[in-house]
Every structure is written in structure tokens, then in C-alpha cells.
Amino acid sequence: MTHDEAAARQPREPSGRPADPAGSGRTPLDRPAPDRPAPDRAALDQEAEEVAVAVMAASRLLVAISARALSSIDDTMTLPQLRALVVLESCEPLKLAAMAATLGVNPSTAMRMVDRLEAAGLVDRRTNPANRREVVLNLTDAGRAVVGQVMAHRQAEVSALVARLPAEERAGLVPALRALTRAAGELGVDPFDEVRRIGGLVADPLAPGR
Q1: Between the N and C ends of the chain, which has fewer C-beta atoms within 10 Å?
Q2: Quick count: other Cβ atoms within 10 Å of Cβ 69?
Q3: Which value, to the nearest 10 degrees, does the dihedral of the CA atoms of residues 109, 114, 116, 120 take?
């Protein structure tokens, strides 16, 4: 008997499809494909842990680069003070309360930080004419110069470090870092967006004509 003759003799459903000989009610076309093996949960957890350790190591490296960049410009300034200057450079003019919230510190800590930065001639602090109970902060020219110098020094060191990587490893970093940034979502808060959210100044109340 040929294959075609055997197929012709096979019992069929009214629809013309081959019947299920096992009586399960399913024809061969209805039966699901075999399940794929489930991923190894332990392996996935181990991989995630390795990625987290690598990201933390890279974070420590970037902090160290920032510290070296700062010490090359001003060895008396701390990284939190530099961060305050960077926030101001991005968002000035800024209320003191908004700076404290953006930096994640309490107002008294922010006030002490501003006291030191003002004494160093890096920050200008004035009363908000629209609300005498509020303090408005701006960078001085000297403060703006410090931020620019530190950022340029850090950029140069990071660029030199990246240039030491093989080309294929450099190319692989770009999508990985972008994916990490996307995964951070709202955790990667932009300072200016945060200032807007908490009611920081978006126009200069001390500008002439206001």
C-alpha cells in the first residue's frame, strides 16, 4: 500500500482533517507544540547579580574620576558641594528649598552648604523680591568657571579611558548604557525637571525690569 493510499484510508473528521486516533478530541493540527524548557531562574538571578556588581564598580570609577577632577581645580570643595553647583548651573535661579529637595538633603544642610559656597565666592544669595521669606540662589562667574573646569577635566579623563577600549567593546557599551538609562525611568531624574516639579524658579525674579 502506498503512502497516499494509507493517508486516504485514515479516518477523517467531517471537516476533512485526520481524526484523532487516541480519542483525545484533538486532531494533529489542534495539538499544541511541545513546551519549551523554562529558563533557569538561578542562572538569571546570577546574571542579574553580576550586572549589578559591574554597574556598581563603574559607578565607583565615575565618582573617583569626579573627585580627581574636583581636586585638580579646588582641593577644599567636596563632591556634594560640586553637585550643588552643577544643579545651580542647570537650574538657576533656584530657591533654597528647591535646591535642598533636588539634592535630597534637609533645608538646614542646604543652608550650611550655601554658606560655604557663598563665602568662597561661588554662589550669590539674595532675597526673592516676590516673597521676602524666600532666598534665591545663582552662580557667580567664579562658580560657573569652577563647574566648567571640573566638567571639562572629567570629560577628558573619561574620553581617555574609553579610547583605551578595543573598538568592538566601545561599540557594545553604547546600547548597554542606553538600555540602563531607559530602565532607570523616573529614577534618572533630570535636575531641571525635578526643580519644575517641586516649584523651583523657572524665571529670574531678580532680572532687570521684573
Answers
A1: N
A2: 20
A3: 160
